[in-house]
Amino acid sequence: MKISSTRSPMFTLFFMFYPPNLSDAGNGIRTRVTSLGNPVQQEKPAHIHASDIDKYFLLREIEGICKDWQQNSRRWIKTYLDYVSWTVDEDKTLLYCKKIKDTSSVTYYRKQIYQIRRFLEYLKIDWASAIKLPPEPEYLPKRVSSDAIDTLLDGFKDHKYVKQIKALILLGCSSGMRAEELYQLAPNDIDLSHRIVHINHNPHNGQTTKTQRSRISFFNVNAQKILSEYLEYFNNGNGLEVLFGHSHLFPIFKDSPVKIKDFRKYFSQEWDRRGGPTSIKKILMGHSMRGDVDLCHYNAQSEEDLKAIYDRVMGDS
User: Fold this and answer.
1) For the chain, N or C: smaller number of CB within 10 Å?
2) What is the average pLDDT value for the chain, to the nearest integer?
3) How far apart are CA 87 and CA 24, in angstroms?
4) Same domain, 306 and 180
C-alpha cells in the first residue's frame, strides 16, 4: 500500500505559523552513508520538546482526528521519544523500529511506525521518508453469527449494567456503526420513534467519523425496545455520565469472544445473508465513496429511501 506524504494546504499554513522547535538543528554537521553508498551531510540530532508534540496534535485535531486515535498516536510517539531520549537520531530510530517489529504483529507495527514517521515528516526530518512499512497482512474477517450474538447477550444477563450492555449490542449489530462512533453517541443522537441514529462528524463536540462526514443509520424494532428501556434508566440517576463510554465498556468486553468492534462485522455479514444491496450497506456503514463510481456519481437516496430499504432487509428482526 502506497502511503502519501503530501501535505494539505491547511498543514502548510499551520507549519508556517508553528514551525517545530528543533533547537539543536544546525549546530553541527556529520556525514553518513546512504544505502547506495553515497556520503551525505546530516544535521546534528535535533532535540524535541513537549511543545512540538502539542503543536503537532493541535494540527491533527484541526484535521478532525478522533480523540481516541489521538491518544493512541500521542502515546506511541512519546514512547518512541523516550527511547531516543527526546533527540531525533536516525540510528536510534531504526533500532526502535526493529524493536517494535520484533515484538509486535505486522498490523500493530504498521500503525505505530506510520504515526511516528508522520510526526518525523512534520519535523522535516529528511530520512523519515526512507522508513518503509511492510505490506498489510492477508486479512480473513471473523465470522459473527446470530447464534454468537444470542450467546453474548445471554452471558451478560446478570451483569450490573445489563441494560446498557444489551442496548449497545443490539444498536451496534443493527446499525453497522463503528465502535468509536458508538462511544461518542449522545442521547439526543438517537431518534427512538423513527428508529434513526445520527452519526455526527463534529470535532468541536468530540464526535468524529472516519470519513469526516456525518450520516444516519437505522436500528431494528428489537433494538428500539431495548434502547427505550436503557434511555429511561440512563436518565434516572444511574451514575453513568456517558451513554456508551469507552473507558467503562471496553474492559467489560475484554474477555468476551465477541468484541464491540465485531458488532459492525455482524451487521455487514447479516445484511448480505439477507440479500441486502451492497451499495446501501456502504452508505449506512459510512464507507468511503472514493473509487466507487456508482455511489459517487449516480446512486443518490433520500432518508426515506434508505429507511424503506433498511426495513425490508433488517427492520423486523
Assistant:
1) N
2) 86
3) 9
4) yes
- CA 147 – CA 150 distance, rounded (Å): 5
Cell numbers at residue 114, please? 506510520
Of 130, 163, 192, at which residue does a domain stop? Answer: 130
* Residue 39 is assigned to a structural domain of this protein: yes
Show Cβ contacts of residue 163 under 8 Å, excluding neighbours closer than 6 positions.
226, 229, 230, 233
CA separation for the pair 63, 8 (Å, rounded): 10
Secondary structure letter of residue 176 according to DSSP: -
pLDDT one-digit tens code per residue, 250-273: 999 999 999 999 999 999 999 999
Total count of domains within the chain: 2
The better pLDDT of the pair 43, 181 is held by: 181
**256 domain-assigned:** yes
Range with the lowest mean pLDDT among 32-46, 129-143, 206-220?
32-46
Distance, CA of 259 to chain centre: 15
